[in-house]
Amino acid sequence: MSEIEVQLKKGVLGLCVLALLSRGDSYAYEIASRMAAAVDMGEGTIYPLMRRMQSDGLVATYLEESPSGPPRKYYRITDTGRSRLAEQAEEWRGFTAAVDGLLDGRVTAPAEKPTEEEPGHDA
User: Fold this and answer.
1) What is the pTM of this model?
2) Under DSSP, is residue 56 helix (H, G, I), strand (E, B) or coil?
3) Are 23 and 4 contacting, i.e. CB atoms less than 8 angstroms apart?
4) Distance between CA atoms of residues 4 and 9, nearest Å
5) Cβ-contact 95, 107 below 8 angstroms
């Protein structure tokens, strides 16, 4: 996996988790499985991320009986998490549109405007 891919994944994992939870409550293993299928994220990454998101007030937890084994800890998105999701989704869409524009050649750098006098240059 390339360095850029690793860094991009690290940067958007929280956004992806919030997006999943905005569609319904889930437990960590289920979230990890969906993330692994979508963005090839390692299962061990989800647990520290979920603890951090809970500490930040983005998600809340509750226990629910499991048909097989002990009760499962479920995560649900909080109002703070929904606000963060909206903010980050808007930022992500703007960022990806800008990058796509650069990659596709639709966006070019603006022409430099001459300044009155640049330091270090003799006129």
Assistant:
1) 0.78
2) coil
3) no
4) 9
5) no
